[in-house]
# Entry
Amino acid sequence: MPSYPASASQLLGQTIDNGALRIEAILGAGSFGVVYRALDTQSGAHYAVKRVEKARSDYYQTRETQLHALVSSHPHVLTFHREIDADHYAFFVYDVCAGDLHSVIRKLTFFREDELIKRVFVQIVDALDYCHSRGVYHRDLKPENILVSSKSGEIDVFIADFGLATTSKMTSSSCGTPCFMSPGVLLSLSVMHCSNVQSLICLQNRWCSTITRTILSKEMCGHSVASLLK
# Structure
């Protein structure tokens, strides 16, 4: 059983947003905040709610929510519903998912499942292409930031966590997760948003070495990795 900060556990059973959401359980915690499962007290629907401390130096309330909202309508970008302001914290409300791609990969769900790998990879490329067409560049693409609809069977995926996203086509800052960064980002050189393609290649290698090159061709539902470089 993972341990969480006392301040995170204290919210369990409480309501936020004037009683609209009841916090039921902790789904996870990281350097950027705590994620809860919450119940809509009116509809009975469940949501994922991310709590972030406003006082943190790395809290980018406006950028994260605005950029996520710009691309949230895509079927393979995690749906962002709203932001709730509550004293020292901000709460971001999203669709709830079954877990992340990292946990699915660790369970060898994709072993010898080239068609499933292709299906999921196409969804990621499609979502990333849409983000780029809207002028949003994620900059932290990795399995932990790709959520899944289920942990087996016909899996759908959703790009999440736009905390490091930008609208700038060029960046000289070293941000993201080192093993998924392009060499230029690692060296803090000025690079274009196409560094996200390096993250896609790392994702592919993480899955299975037997996946064929056809997932990088123009047969991918009308999209190609080349289109992400535009």
About this structure: The CA atoms of residues 24 and 38 lie 5 Å apart. The first strand starts at residue 15 and ends at 16. The helical segments are 6-9, 61-71, 101-106, 114-133, 183-186, 195-207. The two ends are 46 Å apart (CA to CA).
